[in-house]
Write a structure and sequence with these properties.
Length: 411
Amino acid sequence: MARYYYIARNKSGKKESGVEEASGREEAINRLQNKGLIILNVYSEEKGALGLKEEVVAKTKFKPKHYRVTSDDLVLFCRQLSTLLGAGVTILKSLDIISQQVSSRRLFNVIRGLQKDMEGGFSLHDALAKYPDVFSDLWINLVESGEASGNLAVVLGRLATYLERNAAFKAKIISALIYPAILVCAGTGALFFMAIKIIPSFTEIFKGFNIELPLLTKVLIVFSDFLRTKFLILVITIGIVIFLFKRYIKTSAGRRRYESFKFNLPAVGEFFRAIVIERFSSEMSTLLESGVPILYSLEITEHSVGNLTTADIIHRIKEDVRNGKPLKEPMEKSGFFEPLVVQMVAIGEEIGELPQMFKKINTFYQEYSETFLNRFVALFEPAILLVMGTAIGIMVVGMFLPIFQIAKIGE
């Protein structure tokens, strides 16, 4: 029998350390887990934890593909950590294994930092909280819930599912908008090319004839001259306007006005509202399903929903729920949520299946958003082609009108 030193946390979250005798490391881990301990590290008497870590680092052939931490990196990290913990691997060993496979240099450094903090006695959620630019409040609070309940692997699995679903939804939106964006860029480029290169060539030809140019041709020539002579000023002006606009919407008042403007836009306002409700319902279902109390879930969602207008509404809902009101009443009073959402939440509260109802709401709004976007793109593409074709046609007609006049004079 060998002696194995361990560092772990009990169900109340307190750190414990001690010695366990077993025939092997895996048996020691199983015995400790059967005692209800969350294992941070286990190492033999012959080799300390620091030596193990140095050995793993020495064997690691880390070849990062990029520096920043992408959503895909976080999804993979969460799913791998859930799988390893579910298989009985300790947290520190799991982090060691994952660190050898990540593609991000930044995430590699973060994982090493997590290991160092946990070896010093930090819980996983406390260690994650030291990297707010990588791990959101949702991450930290879900991990805390998992550690408190002893179901960290299960909670991380739910978090990974949420992250995967959210990433897939964003990818669908981006892919649907790529082709319209290409059309706009190509059409705008064609218009600028004609205005800067083609129209000046015709202008030189017209100077050789003593004719009165049509109004449309004069307007096009003035427009072309403006672009050629003031192009740099125009670009700088547009850049300044965009910079000031971004600065403005970073302020609290500016952000709220911008969000209000988006929500009240004709045709697409409901789409922006649906996107926000989709995220709200997705986070609420994940949090409630993981055992986070409803007030705490609302507080987390308030700070992570990514929309100040909705955050204000969630804050008011949270305060009403704190005062004893059912979730349905403040949601209905806000006027932001459609009757369908309010009624589904009311049913979920009555039958005790609120997480499942939020999941159904999330599924509905994902499908609604995808359907709306597909239809909008289907209408937007021919509209862009029509607008660009009309603009180019006007330029062509404006340049050929004087030629028709010259032909008539020649007759």
